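Good morning C.,

I know you're traveling, so I'll keep this short. The sequence:
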Amino acid sequence: MKRTAADEKTREKERAKRAALRALRKARAAAEKTGVKLSDWEGEFLGSVEGRVETYGRAFRDREKGSAGSSLSVLQHVKLKEITAKAKGAKKPMKRSSFRPK
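The tokens, ready to paste straight into the viewer:
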């Protein structure tokens, strides 16, 4: 049985959906495990994005905000990484000035 391009596209969407849900759940679990108190906004963000990904398969509507195969937009992915870093206790990286030598 040969796989068609449509089958591959569907499998890729499902793979992206599962990866996004896994990342959201891991961020919430890491915060609970370490005892870090997430702000109300961060908790609401995790819950609403998880709900949209489960319902629609992606958490954003505008195609310009992220690639067609991803379930999270670029900014949602950045915020998720920040929440995960906060839960793990990592400090924010210091921004480098363009005037300093490398």
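Safe travels,
E.
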